[in-house]
Amino acid sequence: MSTGPSRRSLLQAAGVTTALAATGFSLTACSTSGGKGADIGNKGKTLVPYPTYVPSTIAPTPDLPGTAEGVQPAYLKYPEPKDGGLEKPGDGSKISIWTSSWAATPLPKAKNKYWQELEKALGVELDITVVPAAEYNKKLATLQASGEMPDIMQMVSTPNEAQFVLAKCQDLSDFVSGDNIKKYPNLAAIPTYAWKAVGRFSGKLYGIPVERPVAGHRLFVNQAKFKQAGLLVPEVGGIGVDQFTAGLKQLSGKGHWALGAEQGGAFGFNTWMPAFGTPGMWSVKDGAFSYYMETDEFRAGLEQMVKWQQAGIYRPNALTIDGLTADVEFKGQKVYSRANSGISFTSTGADPKLAFEVDNVLPFKPSNGAAPTHWLGSGMYGYTAVKKASKARVELILRVLNHLAAPFGTKEHELIRYGVEGTHFTRNADGDPIKTDLANTQGGGRDSLGVQYLAEAPQALYVPGNAEVTKREHAFQQKVLPIGVTNAADGLRTSAWTSIQESLMQHREDAIKDIVMGRKKVSAWPEVLKEFERRGGKKAAEALAEEYEAAQKA
């Protein structure tokens, strides 16, 4: 769970319904006490310890060091890959996998050399089902209702996912808790914050986290344009919001807009609200939980977004623009910024066809007198669940996942991440691996096959072909992580929140859009808060507070 929509929260923004109730999947089968979701939480349970964190000793020394707080170790050039010392984990048997992809449909195995080489490296036959990510929720509900559980399954937060996991998936506690994880050293190198973001299910461990950087959404921009307008400053709060707004106005007009916006993401609110000092999605004080929409800081940010829309800084038809069009218009310099994730920033900077340099903007000094914050991500994209099986079978699957999590700088990682040299990537003059069209757009590489959402080493900060973008992202993380705030509900499980979260997040986004577009006034915001409470927000806060207290006792 994150404090705002991630680059992949189109799963929610696309309006995909939570179809589990209509599929016939039985929730009562998941609860020993018979109530809906009665034992997904940790209150009153004995909590198994999280896996012992053992940093990798194989990964090369970075050019720019990481930190315990989450600044990524950065590499300005690609290291000479070395043998990661991994034995082939498989026994020749078949492993079924269910995952998703945001890329092109993968080529069938008979024509997919990446798929074939991955099978050789792992020593297993991979029966992979890849669903389009925008259809994940719908397809997941159908899969759950069918009862046909694959061996390995990509999971992200959905309303009834915890109940399903408890009913159908393997309790991994005896395999990965505490020092047990040391049997799988690459999984042991996953930071504790990622395991905590997955959380426990009824006191137990059921998921292997897919780690992601903790630095959250930001405004990344056309560097030359924003520098020209005086909007790139070296320190947080180095420019006031009024001066920032004046620069945005300077860049807007004649068919160009300073701030990009699109159908999803509600005008980039998760970049602007923390700039006004808004705490994380859920924050806790004296044991009580409160929601960020209830704060004066959130409303101050909303008022500023309305002013920007009225000043023509957002395009008037922003909500007709999809994500692909927004990306094209940014790269085509019709709009000069995007509010998005660090992964989107570095992937944009790695585009060899990009005609300008990109940079990140630090939070401005707000007008409400608050200290700006930065909303941190949870540190994971999702997690991997495993089908209930014998001990030997579970250990085989964990060995495969351990191999997929080979650290950056190893030959194993190179194959998993980039594929076969000459087929899926070539090297530029500096030795950087550059993906071919086959891997990048034609369904022949890792991205299309979706294996990056099953297991992965802690992500190194490395941008092939653009060391300057690497430096800028590393510097940005150093500046914003010290002012970062987390979502206190990360890793907590209670049906009181998960059952309403998706609908409330959609309601919040719709309300922001209505107000920014002028269909409603800011004075209507108290009604939005009343609706939040009416739909169960108050009960959710009470339940989360109880779960939070239980987690602190572990």
Taking all Cα atoms into account, the compactness measure Rg is 23 Å
Name of the CATH class of the largest domain: Alpha Beta
Distance between the termini: 20 Å
Report on the biggest sheet.
5 strands, mixed
- DSSP strand count: 14
Q: Might you state the CATH topology name of the largest domain?
A: D-Maltodextrin-Binding Protein, domain 2
* Widest β-sheet, arrangement of strands: 2-1-3-11-4
Shape: globular
Strand percent estimate = 5-15%
Mean pLDDT: 91
Low-confidence stretches: 1-38
Please bin the fraction of helical residues.
25-40%
Report the CATH architecture of the largest domain. Answer: 3-Layer(aba) Sandwich
Structural class, by secondary structure, is alpha/beta
How would you describe what is shown here?
The structure is a single chain. This protein is an alpha/beta fold. 36% of the residues lie in helices and 11% in strands. The protein is built from 22 helices and 14 strands. The protein has helices at 10-13, 20-23, 113-122, 136-146, 161-168, 173-176, 185-188, 192-198, 223-228, 241-251, 269-275, 296-310, 323-331, 342-349, 391-404, 411-418, 437-440, 446-449, 467-480, 495-516, 525-534, 537-552; strands at 94-101, 125-132, 152-155, 208-211, 218-222, 282-285, 288-291, 337-340, 358-361, 374-375, 380-386, 425-427, 433-435, 484-485. The strands form five sheets. Strands 2-1-3-11-4 form a five-stranded mixed beta sheet, with helices on both faces. The chain has a three-stranded antiparallel beta sheet with strand order 8-5-9. The protein has a two-stranded antiparallel ribbon with strand order 6-7. β1 (94-101), α3 and β2 (125-132) form a beta-alpha-beta unit. α11 packs across α12 and α20 packs across α22 (537-552).
